[in-house]
Write a structure and sequence with these properties.
Elements (H helix, E strand, L loop, with lengths): L4 H18 L2 H8 L3 E5 L3 E6 L2 H23 L4 E6 L47 H11 L9 E5 L5 H15 L5 E5 H13 L3 H10 L3 E5 L8 H16 L3 E6 L11 H7 L3 E5 L4 H14 L6 H10 L4 H18 L5 H11 L9 H11 L4 H5 L5 H18 L3 H7 L5 H17 L1 H15 L2
Parallel strand pairs: 2-3, 4-7, 4-8, 5-6, 6-7
Antiparallel strand pairs: 1-2
The structure holds adenosine-5'-diphosphate and magnesium ion (MG).
Length: about 450
């Protein structure tokens, strides 16, 4: 593994961050500070601990949490196991005396940096058409240019860089002014802390922290508070206190405010009162650029054709793409075999579930063309005859649904058509499949064939 220290350290850090969403800071510090990633396998991770007491405790109490966190970061199910390394230093302090994540009155003038991944910065973010608007808005907020961008609501699917951008704002603001009290927190953690504060009768403290001792509030994955009445209420007042005095607030969410059906109306209108930006699934070029940057950072020599293959295969989730790279590097170094397309295929097959089929647009076109007895070149051509137009529209629709391509990407595959043409075609087929029995049958047959491989 000697070439791949970086993935290991990064993996370690990301797993700890993932765990931090679920566990309270004390247990995290007590039990996991002396846990380190030893070996990354294809579908397994071996951790080291200084003594069997710690590994047994983790296994008995946190096995699910750890497995889930590791699987999440690796982009697919992994098995977790432990080895003892007596050379590691056990934690110096007892759990109770371990410093909590959030020092209440920092002695130093600089405010503590809470909850931000230091690697998630603007300069490590690859900008492309799918995310440039969100990027620009975040940059503007971090440069104080954007008074009326408050709150900023970042909306997008899983693994597309929402948390990255959120932390980038926090990191930039901190760099510009280390005294700024920035809180970057998962909405779920906010909720859990609130519940704990209610139980321990420490709500005064809780409120002071979030409403008074906070200059910037970065709240990740806000969608989870939908339906949680008490949290929504508390959050509503927190929001107002901060917003009224012009403090910056940013949310991320995988749902649009309108989609959160169990969200209180007054909160919804607050979310919508600033600016809403979305992040789309990245285009091929952006995926490729992200992958290559990641490989560079981690010191992995990734041949061009392998990078292209991976960026083609993993389309709708950057986290999975990065997970695939970690696994690929691990498999290659364990087995001593070079990184090839074949090896990448094996790795990727293991992490892609049904929702992310590795179906390529080329395959879709081939199968659709055969089904309608036309040529693939007819699909890419400008021929307007119904004999070609219908198969072409169907193929576009399936590329959208099964390959999760963006409209401009589909346009590119079909002889460089404009994305508005693609949108029109997809809409048309989407309607006809419900109104036209023949269309319904075509789609069913084609999907069956494509899914069967
Ligand atoms: P989300 O919060 O939307 O689920 P994350 O922000 O956690 O997604 O991103 C998942 C991973 O992909 C992170 O490691 C992040 O750094 C990386 N990533 C996502 N988008 C980009 C991008 N445009 N450039 C560089 N890395 C990215
Ligand atoms: Mg996130």
């Amino acid at each position: 593994m000697e070439h791949h220290n970086m993935p290991r350290e990064r993996l370690q850090r990301e797993i700890m961050q993932e765990l931090g969403k679920r566990l309270d800071p004390k247990s995290l510090a007590a039990w996991f500070s002396c846990l380190s990633v030893k070996t990354i396998g294809h579908d397994s991770i071996i951790f080291e601990t200084p003594n069997p007491f710690i590994s047994n405790w983790i296994r008995q109490n946190y096995n699910d949490d750890l497995t889930r966190a590791a699987s999440q970061i690796m982009g697919g199910k992994v098995a977790v196991s432990f080895e003892i390394n007596p050379d590691m230093t056990p934690p110096a302090e007892e759990p109770e005396t371990q410093k909590s994540r959030r020092a209440e009155k920092p002695a130093a003038p600089a405010a503590p940096v809470v909850g931000m991944n230091p690697d998630f910065r603007f300069d490590t973010f690859v900008v492309g058409p799918s995310n440039q608007f969100a990027y620009a808005a975040c940059l503007a907020v971090s440069e104080k240019k954007a008074r009326n961008y408050n709150p900023l609501f970042i909306y997008g699917g899983v693994g597309l860089g929402k948390t990255h951008l959120l932390c980038a704002v926090g990191n930039a603001l901190h760099l510009a002014n280390p005294r700024l009290r920035i809180i970057c927190i998962q909405a779920e953690t906010f909720m859990n802390e609130m519940i704990l504060a209610i139980r321990n009768e420490t709500m005064d403290q809780f409120r002071r922290l979030y409403r008074k001792e906070c200059d910037v509030l970065l709240m990740d994955d806000i969608e989870i508070i939908a339906g949680k009445e008490r949290t929504q209420e508390e959050f509503f007042y927190t929001f107002n206190d901060l917003h009224n005095v012009g403090k910056k607030i940013i949310f991320t969410s995988d749902k649009f405010p309108k989609e959160m059906t169990t969200l209180e109306e007054r909160l919804r209108s607050r979310f919508e009162s600033g600016i809403i930006v979305d992040i789309q699934a990245p285009e091929f070029e952006t995926r490729l650029a992200i992958l290559k940057r990641r490989a560079d950072l981690d010191g992995i020599a990734l041949p061009q054709e392998v990078a292209v293959y991976m960026a083609e295969a993993v389309r709708s989730n950057i986290r999975k793409l990065e997970g695939a790279l970690i696994r690929l590097a691990a498999v290659s170094s364990i087995s001593g075999s070079p990184i090839t397309v074949q090896l990448a295929e094996d790795v990727i097959r293991a992490i892609l579930d049904d929702s992310e089929s590795s179906l390529s647009p080329e395959t879709v076109m081939k199968v659709v063309a055969a089904h309608f007895k036309v040529k693939v070149s007819d699909l890419k051509s400008g021929k307007r005859n119904r004999k070609y137009a219908v198969p072409r529209q169907v193929a576009m629709y399936l590329c959208r649904e099964l390959c999760r391509q963006s409209y401009p990407e589909i346009g590119g595959c079909f002889g460089g058509r404009d994305h508005s043409t693609v949108i029109h075609s997809c809409k048309k087929v989407g309607i006809e499949k419900n109104t036209d029995l023949e269309m319904k049958r075509h789609l069913e047959t084609l999907k069956r064939q494509l899914k069967a491989g």
